[in-house]
Amino acid sequence: MHPNIDKYKAVSGQLHAIWNAYASAAETIALDEAYLDVTQRARNLEGARRIAMTIKQRTRTEIGLTCSVGVAYSKTAAKTASEEKKPDGYFEIPTPKDFVDLIIDRDVRTLYTVGEMTAEKLYASGIRTVRDIQAKQDMVVRLLGKQGQWITRLAFGIDDRKVTPYRPQDAKSIGREVTFQEDVDNYELLRDVLVLLALCVERRAKRYGLYGNGVTLKLTYFDMKGITRSRITSACSSAVAIWQEAVRLLDAVEKRPVRLVGISIYNLSGEEGRQLTLEDYFTDVRQRREEELREMLDALQNRYHLDFAGHLDQIYQSDTLHKTVEYMRKHI
For residue 99, with 0-12 CB atoms within 10 Å meaning exposed, 13-18 middle and 19 or more buried, which class applies? Predict the structure, then answer.
């Protein structure tokens, strides 16, 4: 299934516009989830309760969706509260004591930073509940190091993290991937699909004025085994440069049928920071890249009988990208 991510993003924008109107700081953590700092506007628990009810009402009235809201003294407690009465729920955790009383005898995975692998390590040492974490703090720290220190703090309801608005420059990577309807064993096709993915990455990077200092190739084979391969590069954001690095990585992997392929750039910065070469002094680098990209797109059009003229902007939309890739797969 290929969901319409553009529709999701549009509705997500509506949701967050409603929610953010009541916050001095908003930290988006998913299309449909966020932390809101309402301290200044609410002033007290009763004020926070009124804001929560208003958010729920506006979300239902203006968008036709339900939402669950948790009001609490910390981010961890608010997350726990928001999960407590789903769907369309509301729950309050006013103090650290209320938080601990609620979760003390629950499984360690109640603490949202405890994933499956971490939980298995704790289980193997006889630590199964939050109460066990409290009773065996030293053991948890020995097992998990700094993560163990954080988990033991959470077990006592201690979480002083601030709500931090997301900034594009704080992202660890920018990427795009596509899943095929059927396995692909033609690696020339994969090279061509990488052109379109590189274009998508380029557009997003340029939107935020970011450059990548590394390129990652992601593959999922027919047996669902996934691999990633990365290369450190000079700072880049152009589709051509991203594609060239991704192809080098692709040429070096084991050639087996592929179900998913993706590209991302990482080590992001707001400065290009690329050292000039002698060639740069005699050639307009940007013009050369544009010419190379036109040649690549012309080759795709001729090979697959595509028509990008006037429609290339649509390729960045998920639905169009998937349809184009599937068309290429069937007409290789």
Answer: buried
Q: What is the DSSP letter of 314?
A: G
Cβ atoms within 10 Å, residue 273: 10
pTM for the model: 0.62
Catalytic residues, which ones?
A: 33
Question: What gap in Å lies between CA 275 and CA 266, rounded to an integer?
Answer: 19
Per-residue confidence of the chain (332 residues) as pLDDT tens digits? 666 777 888 899 999 999 999 999 999 888 899 999 999 999 999 999 999 999 999 999 999 999 999 999 999 999 999 999 999 999 999 999 999 999 999 999 999 888 888 999 999 999 999 999 999 999 999 999 999 999 999 999 999 999 988 766 667 889 999 999 999 999 999 999 999 999 999 988 888 888 898 999 999 999 999 999 999 987 778 899 999 999 999 999 999 999 999 999 998 877 654 444 444 444 565 677 778 888 888 888 889 988 776 567 778 887 788 889 998 999 88
Query: Using N-to-C axis directions, what is the helix angle for 187-207 and 285-304, rounded to 10°?
Result: 140
The answer to whether the CB of 197 falls within 8 A of the CB of 263 is: yes
Map out the domains of the chain with their CATH numbers: 1-67 (3.30.70.270), 95-165 (1.10.150.20), 168-330 (3.30.1490.100)
260: helix, strand or coil: strand
Cα-only R_g, the chain: 24
Distance from chain centroid for Cα 270: 19
Whole-number Å distance between alpha carbons of 194 and 212:
17
Give the torsion through C-alpha atoms of 143, 148, 154, 155, to 10 deg: 20
Tokens representing residue 74 in the block:
């910390």
Could you tell me which residues come within 8 angstroms of residue 95 by beta carbon, excluding any fewer than 6 positions away? 73, 157
Collapsing DSSP to helix, strand or coil, 33 comes out as: strand
**Cβ-contact 80, 157 below 8 angstroms:** no
How many angstroms separate the CA atoms of 71 and 2, rounded?
Answer: 35
